[in-house]
Design brief:
CATH class: Alpha Beta
Low-confidence stretches: 1-7, 11-61
CATH superfamily: Metallo-dependent phosphatases
CATH topology: Purple Acid Phosphatase, chain A, domain 2
CATH architecture: 4-Layer Sandwich
Structural class: alpha/beta
Radius of gyration: 19 Å
Largest sheet: 9 strands, mixed
Distance between the termini: 15 Å
Number of helices: 6
Number of domains: 1
Length: about 350
């Protein structure tokens, strides 16, 4: 019998932190055992240089790998009046370049805000070039729209989105890769009619129930643009996602992790016995986070910095465990380090 529980490992050379979190099914639901392997002075906010994404590819060890990214939009001028720039366009370029060179990536999932203004033709030009490189590498792209993808004129924004992703209508769907099913949902509720909202809800409930009964599925990943939980000081957590999607996610024993974007940071929450990640670090202006006693929810990511560097997420099934790895951009804006790993196994 596989051991049930969640194992999280943190690798951060510059922070000098290594943490092993173990939650077993025989513990209390929120019990966590922390083993601090090392704690050295912090010299860098965002980590140290690692291997370049453009270096010669190492021999492949595992397949398939699913990649997730969100919020790759370039900054709008009005946003820079509130938030500082951090070579954002360079960060997005580095992420897409790294994804092309990642070993064994079978699919790329984009959780929305692909571009800054979906209705603006020029805003798509840069992203179109990146997506072409991804597709030329044989990696299919599965997106869900974010709020920026509807800007400024919703109909034109939706049309531009569907011109690039014609099979993404309706904007909620499921894909299967090996033993992993990824369910993507449209959390732009105010852009949906009452009929569409009801249809999406019925579909979601029916689909996850079927996946739970499917013996060939080991893990289900649920993704939306708007996160149910975040400590962002810029955007609010989505109460609509909390009310509509989270209860269904919690009922499904094979639903292992809920992914969201919108907040431009990496965050990890363990709520109601399950894991929720915010992965909005694709290139948008980084959001300051509420911390310590001001935080809305306890963030398990051990680097308690106000902002989190640009990143993407890798996901694969390893036996009975769903393994997640956060690749975070280094200060050279070229290479990435794996700074955080989570393995989720067994049914809660």
């Amino acid at each position: 019998m596989p051991r049930r529980g969640v194992y999280a490992y943190v690798h951060e050379p510059a922070w000098g932190i290594a943490v092993n979190i173990l939650r077993n099914s025989h513990n209390l639901p929120h019990a966590k055992h922390l083993l601090l392997v090392g704690l050295l002075p912090v010299f860098h906010l965002f980590g140290s240089p690692g291997s370049s994404a453009t270096e010669e590819r190492k021999p492949e060890s595992r397949r398939p790998v699913l990649a997730f990214v969100s919020d790759t939009q370039e900054p709008l001028w009005i946003e820079t009046l509130v938030l500082q720039r951090d070579r954002n366009e360079e960060a997005t370029a580095a992420i897409f370049s790294a994804l092309v060179h990642e070993q064994g990536v079978a699919a790329l999932f984009h959780l929305g805000d692909v571009t800054a203004m979906g209705s603006c033709t020029t805003g798509w030009e840069r992203i179109d070039a990146y997506l072409s490189r991804i597709e030329d590498a044989g990696i299919p792209v599965f997106p869900v729209p974010g709020n920026h993808d509807y800007y400024i004129f919703p109909r034109q924004g939706k049309r531009a989105f569907l011109n690039r992703f014609p099979r993404r209508e309706p904007s909620w769907y499921v894909t299967r890769t090996g033993a992993i099913a990824v369910v993507l949902l449209n959390s732009n509720f105010f852009r949906l009619s009452n009929h569409e909202r009801a249809e999406q809800q019925r579909w979601f409930e029916t689909e996850v129930s079927a996946l739970d009964r499917d013996s060939t599925v080991k893990s289900v990943v649920v993704g939306t643009h708007h996160p149910p939980y975040t400590n962002s000081t810029i955007v609010d957590p989505s109460t609509e996602v909390q009310d509509a999607f989270v209860p269904v996610f919690l009922r499904c024993s094979k639903c292992k992790v809920f992914l969201g974007g919108h907040a431009h940071a990496f965050e990890h929450f363990h709520e109601h016995g399950k894991d929720f990640l915010v992965i909005g670090g694709g290139g948008g202006l980084l959001h300051p986070l509420l911390r310590t006693e001001q935080a809305r929810w306890k963030d398990l990511f051990p680097a308690n910095t106000e902002r989190r560097m640009f990143h993407y997420l890798l996901c694969e099934q390893r036996g009975e465990f769903l393994h997640l790895a956060v690749k975070m951009l280094n200060p050279d804006y070229r290479s990435f380090d794996t700074v955080y790993e989570i393995a989720i196994g067994g049914n809660w």
